[in-house]
Amino acid sequence: xxxxxxxxxxxxxxxxxxxxxxxxxxxxxxxxxxxxxxxxxxxxxxxxxxxxxxxxxxxxxxxxxxxxxxxxxxxxxxxxxxxxxxxxxxxxxxxxxxxxxxxxxxxxxxxxxxxxxxxxxxxxxxxxxxxxxxxxxxxxxxxxxxxxxxxxxxxx
Length: 156
Hints:
Layout: H1 4-10, H2 12-23, E1 27-33, E2 39-49, E3 52-57, H3 62-69, E4 72-76, E5 87-97, H4 100-110, E6 119-133, E7 140-146, E8 150-155
Antiparallel strand pairs: 1-2, 1-4, 2-3, 3-6, 4-5, 5-6, 6-7, 7-8
């Protein structure tokens, strides 16, 4: 499953644009799946570090329990209101929860101050998308990447 660094190699401009939108705000929204399959959205903080997309969770938070049961997720960067809106980024894939041994090394590398029972997840990315306006601000541009098809652009 692709990591952030894989996308940076295959679609560097898209990865850079997505990183800019993801880094623009500390808080993001993550969607997970409840036990009954319905969606749940939660706030989270995520960061790109050392070629991977990471996020943490408090011990036994419902989003962490959701991801343990079903690792599929979607992450949204957040958006400004028009007319200031420049675009946003969306990432979808599967979350890998780090074991205690790997979690300690990752937390130290990331510089996070988490309790020992906190959850740490690394994204295995199935899709990355950036939605923005063209330079004239009269058309929507959707650029996306998937491992099986690569980069795609749609103007609307």
